[in-house]
Hints:
Helix content of chain A: over 70%
CATH architecture of the largest domain in chain B: 3-Layer(aba) Sandwich
CATH superfamily of chain A: MetI-like
Shape of chain B: globular
Strand order of the largest sheet of chain B: 6-7-8-3-9-10
CATH architecture of chain A: Orthogonal Bundle
Radius of gyration of chain B: 25 Å
Oligomer: heterotrimer
Amino acid sequence: MGPKRSRFMFSVLCFGLAFLYVPMVLLVFYSFNHSKIVPIWGGFSLRWYKVLFQSEDVWAAAILSFKIAFVNATFAVMLGTLAALALVRFGRFRGRTLFTGMITAPLVMPEVITGLSLLLLFIGLQGLIGWPAERGFTTITIAHITFSMAYVAVIIQSRLSGMHMDLEEAAQDLGARPIRVLFDVTLPRLAPGMLAGWLLAFTLSLDDLVIASFTTGPGSNTLPILIFSRIRLGLRPDINALATIIIVAITIGVILFGWIMLRQQRQREREIQQAALN
Amino acid sequence: MSSDSDPILTDRPWLDPGQEPFIRIQAVSKQFGAFVAVDNVDLDIYKGELFALLGGSGCGKTTLLRMIAGFETPSSGRILIDGDDMQDVPPYERPVNMMFQSYALFPHMTVEQNVAYGLKRDGLDRGEIRDRVDAMLEMVELATFRKRKPHQLSGGQKQRVALARSLVKNPKVLLLDEPLGALDKRLREQTQYELMNIQDRLGITFIVVTHDQEEAMTLSTRIAVMDQGAFQQIGTPTEIYEYPESRFVADFIGSANMFEGRVTGHSGNIATIAVDSLPEPVRVEYSALLHDGMKAWIAVRPEKIRLSKTPFDDDSLNVVQGIVEEIGYYGESSTYRIRVNPGLRLEITHPNLRRPRDGRHVADWDETVYVGWEPEAGVVLTH
Amino acid sequence: MQRSRFGHLVERLQSSWKFLVIFIPYAWLLIFFLAPFFMVLKISLAELRIASPPFTPMIATDPSGATVIRLIFDNFGYLLQDSLYLNTYLSSLKISIGSTLMCLLIGYPIAYAIVRSTPVVRNILLLMIILPFWTSFLLRVYAWMGLLADQGTINDMLIWLGLIDAPIRMLYTEFAVYVGIVYTYLPFMILPLYANMEKLDASLLEAASDLGAKPVTTFLTVVLPLTVPGIAAGSLLVFIPATGEYVIPDLLGGGNVLMIGRVLYNEFNANTDWPVASAVAIVLLLLLVLPMMLYQHIQSKEAK
């Protein structure tokens, strides 16, 4: 590669990363602004963090969001893994095409439509069987599981189809019945994929505004709903503070996760090298 | 020129002092970080040669080839092709073409489009491109497959498309990276002769990278054996096989029985060497510089050792006794592993001139046999 | 006897566990994905009424006592007549196509640069591209409110540099919506492109170069045709959600930018005209069916 070309590549990368990161850096920067008007610098202060921590509805919304995200991720991983197993390992079965369609469609369905349709279902069900009596935690969680499981299924599916059947066959050859094989061989091998799926489902749920706004009821504000209702009216320094906390937490999480993965991989490589030398 | 009249020199241009080398590799090194892939090598290759770079994986042969093609720049030294320094010439302006190990056929183009690709880049007019592509496809017998995409071809067919694509531009030099590596054994042998035929007909200089010594031996006019980024020996297949210059080459090309010892005397062209693991000294023909007391190794090819159940009557032979430990039957020949003493086993290849009678071979398991070889059969190696 | 009955039970379980593995997610999706969709379809064919639920039933009993099915296509007719809806659909498509193209123009060289870098750098860069995707979508849009506002960072900078005297209006314009969509969906374009380019055999580029192609020619004749699947996947991943986008036009476009997701949301929440809102949703879905099927097709081809 010539120096001219690599310089071009370098500037492309710099521009791209600046585009992605400068807005977020500024967001963080202004959270330490004393002034009430966000873009006007009024000196360094932690004032808005204090406001934030004293705000009870922020706490309530955050707790609700985390609860939903946790339950959602757990169920989504279970359902998504089952769906992926069915699609990759069971060959043909009746209604497979519809199943495939339903599992990929939520990935590309506009949020407004998913939200609207689920709300209509919940209202319809309420009229029909009296459940759900009120909308909130349960309805939002169900809505989130429905689209999160599709993401999990895609992740697990790609892992499964990349896995040879030979280990499963070896287990069967050694006398394990299909259920034993599932628990002894298939699921342990899928564990990293399931973890990735869980984290993705958790994040998707924490991040969702539109579907939650449709399926929530009075008094149940998730964090995104709360944030949205505030920033619709303009810039708010306490939201900058909240954003900073979220961005820092996620950045640390992602970097930690990446670092652990990298370390594990390096460790593995070292062990392989050592084994080869012996 | 003198070489025109001398048939020996036309076939062996490297022996002709009047010949100008076609490709000159001068003091070329290549480092990747701390790793030295090619270590200060010099090499002259002559017009019309079929030259093989032979070595194990990671020996630097592919890096050297890629430097000739222009995909890597030498860290130091220079490469001349037909007298031109290639230093700042990008790959797309070099008079060489390469046949890739993976064939690198463009998957979105048909056979015909693949072959025409290089000609289009030269801006030739359509008629000429068509004619040359036709001729080339005819030559590799793929005219009926012209509209196919690469994934619709067999391995052998892909190989021929790759060859056609790299030859159609009439390069001064064709570089081939493991050209037969992806083919199965039968196809490999057949293709080997096709390659030689084409090379002979077109007179293009070929440089072949290979890890397969048999392939290098049958294909090439000369071989450079590479290890750890340097040439261990450069010579014709016969020279390399019969007169290896180092233990590495003797061991890498074919197989060899190796004896370690010290020179105890030499007279004429015969040296006497006291081998540590044998009671009696071994006599061997030599051409290297020797002096008494120096450490040396004797290499003897398995097929140059004789095997007998009775003592030999020829007393010029080096003779030892041993017990047959293993017999490997290959059809045309058998390999015997003879235990001479706990520290020394010899490998002997014996042609099966007759059918084994009642399943019995020349010698049988656990039999005590005599093995012997002439002083001319061995080679003295000093490193 | 006891034993064989037990064995029979085990056998039954063995065959039924497979059934359960399929049944559980299948049933979930039927109830919570397919059924709601038909609800929308049903309501889109009903009439508004002031009652609860605020639409007429599809199956009703007429005065004579017979059961009749009432399908009312008025809502769809209304969408066609009212130029507001038509304009909104067109404006949505214009904005989503435009921002998809911008994502492609920005994302393609970035993906290419990532593929061309050394393995260690490549992993770090990928992590950096994915990182914003994990941070809150809403907050990333909010960040641009601060940048684009009349007294925002960009205007401040331009005034400070002396390039302008008065702030340029950027927030609550179509431009802001473009910026927001490109910003939030850029990783969706880069990642499939990267995945595609990574699979591109480097020796193909070398072969082209070896056969006399200059870098630009190599790009046009080899790289570009072979990355069409990545371009298609990335474009669809941006185009589909962008078309139905609600948050970005609402926060960055204000009332000035018409996008169908926003109209749908407001129609439903403010006007509570469910039948029309459902019809709007159905039409939006019809608009996206073709690109969605295309995406599925690419996905299933990738899987093979």
